C-alpha cells in the first residue's frame, strides 16, 4: 500500500529541506532521506559562508536573493542564521582581478593586513574584499526548515533509501526502504547521488560530477581577530576563517569522486597546515577534526533546477556545487514556483501536460519577476 502525495522530495540535505519548507502548506509533500539523520552528507560538511561575489552570475543573483529571504526569517527567529563576515581574496594582481566581480572591491595591501594581521606581508600582492558576505549558522537554518516543513504538514521519512521509481499513470511510484509512495512530482535532491537516482528512475542522467572538498578545525597559537574575514587564495589553493577561538581551514581541492560517504585522504590537511604555517603567523598546532564532503557540479557549474524535458513530473534540484547554502532559499523559491505553476489546474494537471522543459537555473531565473538588489 503506497502513501499518495503531490510531491515526493528525495534527499534531506539543504536542497531538499529548503524546498520542503517552501512548499509546506501549499500541496501535500513527503521528504524521503536514505540516512537515519537529515543533512548527514555534504550539508553537514560545509564551510558555512554565504558570499555574493562567489560563483557565476546566476549563482550570485541567487545568493543575493537567498540572503534577503534568510534575513527576513531571521527577524522572526530567536537564533540568527546570518552573522556578517567579510570575504577577502588574496594573491597576485592578475589572479585576484580575474576572480573579482561586482560585489568585490579592490583594497590596498595595508587594508588587507589590517583585516588579517596574521598574513605574512610578502605572501600576497593584491587583495579584494566582499563586505556583503555572511557566516551562516547551518544547524539553525536546517532545523528551521525541518520545523517549518513539519508544521506545514510535510511528512519527513528518514532511513529510507529510494530503491525503485517508475512512472505510474500520470505520476510516479517509488519504493523506499519498506515503504511505497505515489506522487505527481518526484524531486531529485539526492546531491552526489542525483544521477544515480535518475538512472534508477529510468531518466537519462545529466553527467553530474561529485568533487571532494576537505576542511578541518585547527588550534592556533595566534588567534584571528574577531572581525577577520574569511580569507581565500585567488588561485583556489586554500581558505581559512575564524571559528570561535579556532580556525577552519581547507585545501580547496577539486578532486573527482563517485557518490560516497567521503573521508579525508591522509596528508591533505597536513600539507595545508605546513603551508599556512609558512604564509601566516597563525602557528597551527593541532587538528581538532577534519572532514570531506562532495560538491556536485554540472559541466557548466550552474545548478540544475527544473523539470526534466523527457520524463514528465521528474524535477531536478541538483548540481549546487560549492553554493548549496548560499543559493538555498533562492533556489527553493524558484523550484517551488515551477512546481506549483499552473496552480489553477493543480499539480498533477500541470506536470502531466509535460509542458515544462528541463530548465537550467539561468533560464528559469529569466522567467521570474524577482527584484534582485545589487
Ligand atoms: C568542505 C565544503 C565546504 C563547503 N562550503 C560551502 C559554503 O561555505 N557555502 C555554500 O553555500 N556551500 C558550501 N558547500 C557546498 C554545500 O555544502 C552543498 O552545495 C550542499 O550541502 C548540497 O546540498 P544537497 O542537499 O544538494 O546535498 P546533500 O547534503 O548531500 O543531500 C543529499 C541527500 O540525498 C540523500 N540521498 C541520496 N540518494 C538517495 C536515495 N536514493 N534515497 C533517499 N535519499 C537519498 C543523501 O543521503 C543525502 O542526505 C561546501 C561543501 C563542502 C564539501
Automatic annotation (TrEMBL):
The keyword Oxidoreductase belongs to this UniProt entry's keyword annotation: yes
CC per GO annotation: cytoplasm
Protein name from the UniProt record: Glycine/D-amino acid oxidase-like deaminating enzyme
Classification via Pfam families: DAO
GO-annotated molecular function: oxidoreductase activity
Keywords: Oxidoreductase
Domain of life, per lineage: Bacteria
Domain FAD dependent oxidoreductase per the UniProt entry, residue ranges: 6-336
Keyword Oxidoreductase assigned: yes
Amino acid at each position: 500500500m503506497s502513501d499518495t502525495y503531490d510531491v515526493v522530495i528525495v534527499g534531506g540535505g539543504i536542497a531538499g529541506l529548503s524546498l520542503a519548507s517552501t512548499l509546506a502548506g501549499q500541496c501535500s509533500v513527503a521528504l524521503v532521506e536514505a540516512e537515519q539523520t537529515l543533512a548527514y552528507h555534504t550539508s553537514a560538511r560545509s564551510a558555512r559562508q554565504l558570499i555574493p561575489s562567489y560563483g557565476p552570475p546566476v549563482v550570485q543573483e541567487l545568493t543575493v536573493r537567498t540572503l534577503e529571504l534568510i534575513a527576513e526569517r531571521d527577524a522572526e527567529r530567536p537564533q540568527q542564521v546570518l552573522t556578517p563576515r567579510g570575504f577577502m581574496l588574496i594573491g597576485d594582481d592578475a589572479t585576484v582581478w580575474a576572480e573579482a566581480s561586482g560585489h568585490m572591491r579592490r583594497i590596498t595591501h595595508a587594508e588587507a593586513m589590517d583585516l588579517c594581521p596574521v598574513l605574512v606581508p610578502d605572501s600576497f600582492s593584491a587583495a579584494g574584499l566582499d563586505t556583503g558576505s555572511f557566516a551562516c549558522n547551518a544547524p539553525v537554518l536546517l532545523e528551521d526548515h525541518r520545523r517549518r516543513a513539519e508544521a506545514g504538514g510535510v511528512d519527513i521519512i528518514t532511513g529510507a533509501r529510494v530503491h525503485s521509481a517508475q512512472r505510474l499513470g500520470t505520476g510516479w511510484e517509488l519504493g523506499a526502504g519498506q515503504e511505497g509512495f505515489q506522487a505527481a512530482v518526484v524531486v531529485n535532491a539526492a546531491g552526489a547521488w542525483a544521477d544515480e537516482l535518475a538512472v534508477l528512475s529510468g531518466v537519462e542522467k545529466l553527467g553530474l560530477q561529485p568533487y571532494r572538498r576537505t576542511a578541518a578545525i585547527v588550534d592556533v597559537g595566534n588567534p584571528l581577530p574577531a572581525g577577520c574575514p574569511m580569507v581565500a587564495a585567488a588561485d583556489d589553493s586554500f581558505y581559512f576563517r575564524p571559528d570561535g577561538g579556532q580556525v577552519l581551514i581547507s585545501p580547496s581541492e577539486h578532486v573527482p569522486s563517485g557518490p560516497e560517504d567521503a573521508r579525508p585522504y591522509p596528508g591533505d590537511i597536513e600539507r595545508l597546515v605546513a603551508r599556512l604555517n609558512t604564509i601566516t603567523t597563525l602557528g597551527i598546532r593541532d587538528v581538532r577534526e577534519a572532514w570531506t564532503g562532495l560538491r556536485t557540479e554540472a559541466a557548466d557549474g550552474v545548478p540544475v533546477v527544473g523539470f526534466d524535458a523527457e520524463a514528465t513530473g521528474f524535477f531536478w534540484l541538483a548540481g549546487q556545487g560549492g553554493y548549496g547554502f548560499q543559493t538555498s532559499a533562492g533556489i527553493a523559491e524558484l523550484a517551488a514556483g515551477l512546481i506549483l505553476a499552473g496552480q489553477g489546474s493543480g499539480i498533477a494537471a500541470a506536470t502531466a501536460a509535460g509542458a515544462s522543459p528541463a530548465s537550467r537555473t539561468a533560464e528559469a531565473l529569466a522567467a521570474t519577476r524577482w527584484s534582485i538588489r545589487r
